[in-house]
Amino acid sequence: MAEALTIARPYAEAAFKLAKTSNELSDWSNMLKIAAFVANDERIRSLLGNPSVPAKRLGELLLEVCGILNLGICGKKLNKDNCTFILLLTEGKRVAVLPEVSELFEQLKTQEDGVLEAKITSAFAITKQQLNDLVTGLESKFKCKIEAKVDVNPKLIGGVKVEIGDEVLDASVRGKLEAMSVALKS
After folding, report:
1. In this structure, are 19 and 99 located in the same domain?
2. Tell me: the pLDDT tens digits for 79-101?
3. Domain boundary pick from 109, 131, 148
4. Which residues pair with 119 in a beta bridge?
5. Which of 51, 66, 93, 122 is the most exposed place for a label (fewest CB within 10 A)?
6. Do residue 36 and residue 79 come from a single domain?
7. What are the beta bridge partners of residue 169?
């Protein structure tokens, strides 16, 4: 996954700059979500490594399917830049990283809006008040609005783990025990 993110990052950044310049962030966001969905389809995945399917034909197929889905969702056709972007990915044999490109694009879009996405994992269910307090603390630390998604994972034993972008704040009992184990071994 880390390798896919590394490959996808320059494509996501280029798409974001192009979308921002043309003031089409939401259109690009929709297109990338659709393209990622199509690229994850097992029938498309089976064509990715197939030497008998030329990159141009694969690109045309992706554009056709994405165009049909896009018209069904927002009633708009893919624009020239969208098509060029998808064809560039197919020619570079990068279609498999479309889901990561879409994910990174969304992160850049939320950062542009002044919002960071936080994935909060807790050992137990969190009350609304606890979540509000945690989000308020995170907003003061990161100096921007935080949009939180909460998951419960009893394997943490106790406490919470917060992931914001590349930063991880691990205040779980499991995390502290693992850190203590590493410290004792060294």
Report:
1. yes
2. 889 889 999 999 998 999 999 99
3. 109
4. 149, 163
5. 51
6. yes
7. 162
Contact 170, 121 (CB under 8 A): no
Q: What is the CATH number of the domain that holds 181?
A: 3.40.30
Phi, psi of 34 (to 5 degrees): -65, -45
Domain encompassing residue 26: 2-109
3-state secondary structure of 165: coil
In 3D, which of 34, 39, 41 has the Cα closest to residue 72?
34
pLDDT of residue 73: 56
Show the low-confidence residues of the chain (pLDDT under 70): 1-2, 69-76
CATH of residue 46 = 1.10.520.20
Q: Give residue 70's pLDDT.
A: 65
Q: What is the CA radius of gyration of the chain?
A: 20
Into how many domains does the chain fold?
Answer: 2
Residue 27 identity: D
Alpha helices in the chain (DSSP H): 2-21, 25-40, 42-48, 55-74, 80-91, 98-112, 128-142, 173-185
